[in-house]
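Subject: Sanity check before I submit

Could someone independently write out the structure tokens for this chain? I want to compare against mine line by line before I put it in a report. The sequence has 298 residues.
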Amino acid sequence: MAFGLWKPRHTNRQQQSSESLAETLPALFLRAQQLANTASTGVHGRHKSGVGEDFWQFKLYTQGESTNKIDWRQSAKRKDLHIRQHELETNESIWFWLDKGLSMTYCSPLSDISKLDQTRTLFLALALLLNKGYEDYTLLESGEAAAHGASHIHHFAKLLMQESNSEFSSILAEGTIPKKSRLLVASDFLTPLDDLKANLQAAAASGLNGVLLHVADPAETSLPFSGRVQFTDLLGTPNLTIGNVEKVRSDYHALFNQHKSGIEQLARDYGWRYVFHQTDDNAAAVLATLYHHLSGGK
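---
Independent answer below. Compare away.
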């Protein structure tokens, strides 16, 4: 499915059984953990004191602070006045939406991983980083509240691996996303820009914004083929034959870049961040960028 209207996936593949799903999760977790570890040195959580319910730490009382914050029991134990600090209470949470359409499964010989699997890895690695910062997150398609923790991230990973026909527009229409939430929408955006514009308008009407993650295979950006080439869809059905690909390459590059620029401009118009990622690029760098934007960075 692309970011616009959903189209049914007419494939001969059966739904993944629970056994096959369980087999894929360890590999996904391993890739995501390695990626999160690589990127973690450049990212920092929002762990800071404020008015909330969750205890964070004790600190020495300093003159001018409210005496109501003093923890007299701890002060007696430590022989100095200490106050009890709590985590910053916030209603912000991260809501993920992943395009799981057929075009996202494409993987050319120029890449080691499909657009869909690369994005799944980025999503799970980002969730691991959010977990460390005690930040809440969820998948839009789940219909579940945002949360964090060990059990939540395993459930999140299982949902990432499942097929889905969720429509971003219909989820927005439900109005269940808290207004202070940030969204991460990932797709190859192989749809008309008008579809994207309609979704961003709907998000803006609900007071929502976030990050658009535009994912592409290197073959989609470079058109590396030569000579006479028959192009087929992902079901193997011939759609187009070009006698000399080299002659259309420059025009193709111009059209691709025009579409890419259009997506970026729409993101800017509606207050979203735009991040482009090619599947053969440095995944740790884009992960750090996503975390920075979603954690309140400019």
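---
OP: Matches mine. For the report I'm noting this point. The first strand starts at residue 49 and ends at 60.
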